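Hi U.,

Before I forget, here's the chain from the pilot set. I'm dumping it here mostly so it's searchable later in email.
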Amino acid sequence: MKKLEVIGPKKLKGTIKISGSKNSSLPILAATLLSKNKVKISNLPEVKDIETMILLLRSLGSNIKFNTKTKSLEINNKKNLKTFASYNLVKTMRAGILVLGPLLARFNKAKVSLPGGCAIGARPVDIHLKALSKLGVTYKITQGYIYAKAPKGLNGNIIKFPKISVGATENLIIAACLAKGKTILKNCAIEPEINDLVNFLRKMGCNIRWTGKRTAMIMGVKNLKELNYKVMFDRIEAGTYMIASALTEGDIKITNIQPKIIKTEIDILKKVGAIIKTKKNELRILGIRKNKNIKLITSPYPGFPTDLQAQLMVLLCKANGRSEITEKIFENRFMHASELNRMGAKIKILGNRSIIEGNVDFKGAELMATDLRASVSLILAALTAKGKSIINRIYHLDRGYENIEKKLRKVGARIKRIS
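Structure:
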């Protein structure tokens, strides 16, 4: 089993180019199932979740050519595809459920495994299924599989999500593109990755427009077009490296981004004390010796993302005074706290609230990663810890961060993969 060895403390300095967005690429790849035409996608990150999604699409019959040099692929779904998404491919990746909508839209049936992913709390698919049922889908769940069909095809309807769900919003937008008539989706998630998906679908010939802040109207279409599409940057990766610079009193230039999309993250890090200068497609972030304590609540976009909560917690351990983070998205997303405490942190968990005492000096330790973002939070802590840290179970990390050791070494980190 591979591990990471990190020796700290180390101030980071240099330039990091941000990869394409994992959370944007996954629904876009799933949405290619709608079309019989050739689709080219570029700026895909080389991470395990993308590899798994490509394997899933190939198992359905997609003809995929991948160019590793240009990080782009060409997908052709012209022939009749299978409608069975196996547990073996969906078990490690939450986004596997996103093939359900396009398969139902195009073939009126699907058998899809209930998904897996990180153990950060319940992420039920009932919101997806109840919404799809309003488009004419009937379903049953047996032995871990969703058996869904729409004998008369999908028909447009008005659907209000009971709570904001990124995955359900993506699945329903994709499915509604081929449904008969008009679909109105209310209480949608509006993450930038969803806008990226909508832009992709529009360029493919789908008729989608936002009629309110969280309301989308989709008119079903019959014909789709060939297209080339470049995926947006990964805002969670960008935020992670910004926190790394702030944490280590570093000086890092972050490139290949759009600062306006990560305005909330920039504002929070400025509030903590980081000095940030933005340009059109890049920013420079300088860390300071003593950060300020804050209170923060994670929330759907445009709020502070749950996917950066673990990383920010590490930074607040070094702040001056007591901070609080309330986690409003997932109920089991503080598992990294106990590992940070083993490094010298003073974090108390009270339900969905964490109390973080600042002014901590981390010490190197052997650590266990529990999920994707927890993995990277342990790396951040190790970068500023005295001595050597070993991080186990880094397969979580490989699901969502492209070349993380290489990128960190380039800005001065002492980090390597060991057996």
